Amino acid sequence: MTPAVHTLTKIRRRRPIVLGYHGVAPSRRRDDLSMLLVAPDRFRAQVEMLLAAGFSFVTLAELARLGAGGMPPPGLAALTFDDGMRNNHEVALPILREYAIKATVYVTIGFIDRTSPWIGPGGDGAMMTRSQLRELVAEGWELGAHTMTHPDLSTLDYDACLREISESRAALEQIGGAPVQTFAYPFGRYGPEAIAAARDSGLIAAVTTGSGSWAPYEITRAMIGAADPLPIVLLKLTDRYEPLLKSPPMRVLRRASKQLRGRVQQRARPAH
Prior knowledge:
The protein is of the alpha/beta class. The chain contains ten helices and ten strands.
């Protein structure tokens, strides 16, 4: 047993986990400055480590039902993908099919059959089509709501939040022909109005990106990025990553990194 699998085995005995991804595809850093695309071999290795540690995989809706309003039983793992990138269907699905694992995809309705606004022109930023979403449902995957337009819900009032959530849920149910039971907050940002809207829209659970708890509408996820080395992945799964990010030294580093990415993005924009 490797040290990583040993660590994951200890986590499995204590609690369930939820991992969050965006895309699974090779990428160059200049085309993926937000580091959303995890390399396929790295994704496969992460899944195989979780299997070696003894985790059982469920969809997010299944996990929420088992939790019944609190923490679900230990030993369960849910894989989730945000936005609805086409490589979820073309790359992640075949990999997970090998291990009989079903996942949850949170779909932004306005992104369907378009390209991701966060992936450069040389990257794999295509989004899924309606037929591909239906194929995921046929494979047993869960489709979850992710709003109509991907707004920052923490800036919207209750009515606007309810509209974004309810309309996206209804549209996705029509596309997939299956009930939509869970939701992911865009950017992981939300406030009391968004929580109330998610609850009042009839959903059974909502997930965050990093922060959160096991409360039904603030379920925490470990968001896995393209550049995350194994120690960082393990740190995120042990719940030590978020407190570390909020420490004063890390705040300074994150601010500097954000400024650097902004300058790089500015230089990458074509001249008009």
